[in-house]
Amino acid sequence: MSDLDTFPKVLLKQSRELENHPAMREKEYGIWQTWTWSEYHREVERFAAGLKELGFRRGDKLFVVGQNRPRLYFAISAAQCLGGIPVPTYYDSVVEEMSFVISHAEVRFVVAEDQEQVDKIIDIRESCPDIECVIYDNTRGLENYDSAFAKSFISVQELGDTVCSKDQDAVKKEIDLGSGSDTSVMLYTSGTTGQPKGVVLTYDNVRSIAQICIDHEGLNKDDSVIAYLPMAWVVDHFISYAQAHLAGFCVCCPESPETVLQDSREIGPTYHFTSPRILETHRTSLLIRMEDASRIKRGMFHYFLNIAKKTHDAQGTGNTVSRFDRLMYSIGKILVFEPLKNQLGYSRARLTYTAGEAIGPDMFDFYRSIGIHVKQVYGQTEASPFVTVQPDDQVRSDTVGIAIDQVEIKLTDEGEVLFKSPGVFHSYYKNPEATASAKTEDGWVRTGDAGFFDKEGHLKIIDRTKDVGRLNDQSIFAPKYIENKLKFFPYILEAITFGDGRDEATAFINIDLSAVGDWAERKGLSYASYQELAGHDDTYALIRDCVEKVNADLANDELLSRSQIQRFLILHKELDADDGELTRTRKVRRRIIAERYKVLIDALYDGSERCKIESEVTFEDGRKGTLKGDLRIVSVKTFESMAKSA
């Protein structure tokens, strides 16, 4: 592989060996367009030549912003061909977030999807004077923009055609200069505790882990994925770019975020990456729709689901499945399971990864029992990205698996997870202090996650190390672990728990408007807004029942049984990344929450039954406003603890 140590070199190889094999598809105006690997290479070469003519040089950064579009992937490849470094960002980033990354990464060139993104770049042009040019994909609404600054993707390719007509090897010469130790991509962390950090990954980092996982799962050119994850997230770059290049499979870009499910049904990807929240949303939607079906269909649905669960449980415990149950499962597969998989876009799926949060056992069993091969993985941007994967014959809902090949894992005395890997990131850009803090002198990386190994050697993640605290009785308090249990319920979209340095644990709850709204409709409850539904007495009763079930579960946990929720409130608004309360990957910014909602936190602990608050909100058009709330605080039933003294 020494002669294929960069992705542009791999692309050259695939353009020859898989010349007419589909490399990328995009649905536009209801029709799927296809690029073969030779066409992929030609699109990249033309753009790279044009970019070089505009002054893009080795070591330059190319800022990429937009949803998953073929030309944005072509742009990433083109930057790498020239020895440049792509810096993708989240398409829903506000101008302040984009301004920080552009300034910090010293960006000169930008590739943007459409007018919305171009306008953001123009808005920050004064604060980021190094920007020389923004290149856009979708030309709609941009005809009259300053062509000296804003150029179409096609116009840059046409410029590249002129360059290539004079020197056919202009781009290949640049590709040949690249090596595996060069920086491949720079991805910015979500920044839960401060400004994001630029994670520098080399070709050797990303390529090694991508190839290990390809070999582990048997991925090949006949596989396909649907690219809907944010391009700035390491997992999308890993799957839709790195693994796609190395295995030669096809990457399919949906028409829009709203059509991902429909487009998945049409294209039938064989390889999926999803999140527990998406899995829960899809399951909830199915269950809601089934309640509207006829009594016969509803009865058949629940009967065969019970058969599936019974069969799945028996197989998981090594018990024999009766001949009758096997027969009923086969019938259920035809009548229920295969149609369900098709509705979810899993008709051809043979591998589905999930990560990011813990997955509820009920939800996990639901998907596994109907034949969807869901497995949990664990990793982070600094690992390029995977550290563990569940083996096919050891898939469980409560672990993240075992270390993949060439990766080592150990725990510190405090329980922090450390790893060694060929995917260990090079550095944090312009931040040697943070780099030194993350890496030990002997090559281990501190993940910041607390975990432990179970009896079978599987890794279990409890929480972020910095977030694990103690109640005043010195018993362990792991907020994320408890929050994940709360979010297993379809009615709870987000939960934030408090307890470190306190006598007891309490919680904020965000309801899921879709699930609770459907529940309210069935009960005949009327409401005019999220705020009104969140404050309804029946909604509080519904959420209290969920919290009490979590408390009953925690009571059986020797380590965390004292962390049962004593009181909770339902927030009057959804936590929002635009309001700075969540990251773009929906991670809670706990410091922001603690500052912004201090009055509510105090009320949870001073015995108050109600608390008033006024919050600033950001509307879709960017305008700011305020939202007032008078929130109820309710107590919850707890259960006898089996915890031993800390």
Question: How would the blueprint of this fold be written?
Answer:
Layout: H1 7-17, E1 22-28, E2 31-36, H2 37-53, E3 61-65, H3 70-81, E4 85-89, H4 95-105, E5 109-112, H5 115-123, E6 133-136, E7 150-152, H6 153-166, H7 170-176, E8 183-188, E9 198-202, H8 203-217, E10 224-226, H9 234-247, E11 250-253, H10 260-267, E12 271-274, H11 276-291, H12 295-317, H13 323-343, E13 351-354, H14 361-369, E14 374-379, E15 386-389, E16 402-403, E17 408-411, E18 416-420, E19 427-428, H15 432-438, E20 445-453, E21 459-464, E22 469-470, E23 476-477, H16 479-487, E24 492-498, E25 505-511, H17 513-523, H18 530-534, H19 537-554, E26 565-570, H20 590-596, H21 598-605, E27 610-618, E28 624-632, E29 634-635
Give a description of the structure.
The mean pLDDT is 93. α1 (7-17) packs across α2 (37-53). The chain has three domains: 2-17 and 30-215, Rossmann fold (3-Layer(aba) Sandwich); 276-347 and 349-435 and 452-461, no CATH class; 465-635, GMP Synthetase, Chain A, domain 3 (2-Layer Sandwich), CATH 3.30.300.30. The chain is 39% helix and 22% strand. The chain is an alpha/beta fold. The strands form eight sheets. Strands 4-3-5-6-7 form a five-stranded parallel beta sheet, with helices on both faces. Strands 12-13-14-15-16 form a five-stranded mixed beta sheet. Strands 2-1-11-10 form a four-stranded mixed beta sheet, sandwiched between helices.
